[in-house]
Amino acid sequence: MDSPALTQLFRQLFRHPACQSIRRPPSLLSRPQSRSFLTRRGPVKRKQQDDVQMWTKRGDYPKDIDEEYRKYPTVTAKELRNRRERPRQVKMLTREFIDDSLYNPHYGYFSKHATIFSPGEPFQFNSIEDGPAFHKLLGDRYTEFEDKLDATNPDIARQLWHTPTELFRPYYGETIARYLVSNYKLTLYPYHDLIIYEMGAGNGTMMLNILDFIRDTDHEVYQRTKFKIIEISPALADLQFKNLTDKLTAKGHRDRVEIVNRSIFDWDTYVHSPCFFLALEVFDNFGHDTIRYQNGTEAPQQGGVLIDAEGEFHEYFNNQLDPVAARFMRVRQAAARRPFPSPLGPPLLRGLRSAAPFQKEYTLPEYIPTRLMQFFDVLNQYFPAHRLISSDFSSLPDAVPGINAPVVQTRYQRTTVPVTTPFVHQGYFDIFFPTDFNVVEDMYRAITGKLTQVTSHEEFVHRWAYIEDTETRSGENPLLSWYKNASMLMTV
């Protein structure tokens, strides 16, 4: 965290204008319920008058935040959506802070600096020697891609990431298309159209690859295909409109595509028709809440962050869970068919741990996917005849401390800089979580009443891809080997 690259990054960030405070009349101040950069975890102080709130203070910046906590309003990412500057003098639950940091249209990660890597011409895997040769070629394409961007728009803090859709174009999209067409023809054809929704479509490459495949392999199905993109980011929605209009027209797909610039959590249209819903590599960026437990009593506390007048972040915990987090805990407990990880450890050892000398009062936090639960609610309420096809990381290395904890990182001068807290300068850091597919599958079943299948990414590709397309001359296959830590959840 104290690397020269990070120090230079801080200097660059501090050049940006600070945000204005958000004030409310005293009568409207919220009752306690419930990123200054990279706050260090310090000693936890108990609030005397309530014995409800607790906060984490930076060791090198001691400050009593009692007064600020009483005065500052609690705000949500939705309330900040129309503000152009980062907030100060407010409190936010962890999930709201993450949503604001990633998705605010004016300064969020996916709005200002983030760019999806496109390799240009598709890789000809059969002509590549082996895996290391592909890795080197990919690095060269990365450099060439970013050099072109810097030639017209230099950005030392550009955030650049890749997806399997782009790296393995068009083969990955064709893999998904085979699954869609096969399941459509088995259960819905010819009584219903093939309606596909995709959330978080990036450059729109997956959509183009799917439509190309269906048009080229099954004309009758293609005539009944409709593709709808739901995109929360105005910047990406604009990119999709601009980049895809000519391509869609040239390929004959224009009349089959609709791009909806809306958050799925604002969705209010009932879709009665059967449809497939693609959520590929999007769960990882959904907001999570932090929960920690008191050793001994096992009482949970919900985390949030206070942003003071100087822009410093102070993490606090509250004994009173908000309704969303409380509901998650109830649904998870009721739906679980298998034991799930807990920072308290296995039940049989909890008593021994609490009696051990020098035991800390509170556990490390766990990060619970409350936004994902709300996404399942949207599917159940507005898309009752949907079939979900989702994929994401089932585990992640180098995460911050905690259970189901995220990786938090940024890029500065083309170098990846990891950090150890999610409370960081909004819009400059990617915050992405692993998905516990055991827990998620059980919750999805409980909320929607649908049957599911969970499989590894490798197993899914083996069944639905023509894996010869992505095999190198040595027999290595990057499409299989690059995503060992990814899984798929599908409605059956």
From TrEMBL:
Q: Matching InterPro entries, A to Z?
A: NDUFAF7, NDUFAF7_sf, SAM-dependent_MTases_sf
Q: Which Pfam family, an example, fits this chain?
A: Methyltransf_28
Q: Where is the composition biased (Low complexity)?
A: 23-37
According to UniProt, the reaction catalysed is: L-arginyl-[protein] + 2 S-adenosyl-L-methionine = N(omega),N(omega)'-dimethyl-L-arginyl-[protein] + 2 S-adenosyl-L-homocysteine + 2 H(+)
Query: What GO terms in the biological process aspect are recorded for it?
Result: methylation
Keywords attached to this Swiss-Prot or TrEMBL record, sorted alphabetically, are: Methyltransferase, Mitochondrion, Transferase
Region forming the signal peptide: none
GO MF annotation list: protein-arginine omega-N symmetric methyltransferase activity
The segments labelled Disordered in the record are 23-51
Looking at the record's lineage, which domain of life comes first? Eukaryota
For this protein, what is the EC number? 2.1.1.320
The cellular location(s) given in this protein's UniProt record come to: Mitochondrion
The enzyme class is transferase
The entry assigns this protein to a family as follows: Belongs to the NDUFAF7 family.
What is this protein for, i.e. what is its function? Arginine methyltransferase involved in the assembly or stability of mitochondrial NADH:ubiquinone oxidoreductase complex (complex I).
Q: What is this protein called?
A: Protein arginine methyltransferase NDUFAF7
- Organism, by scientific name, is Penicillium brevicompactum
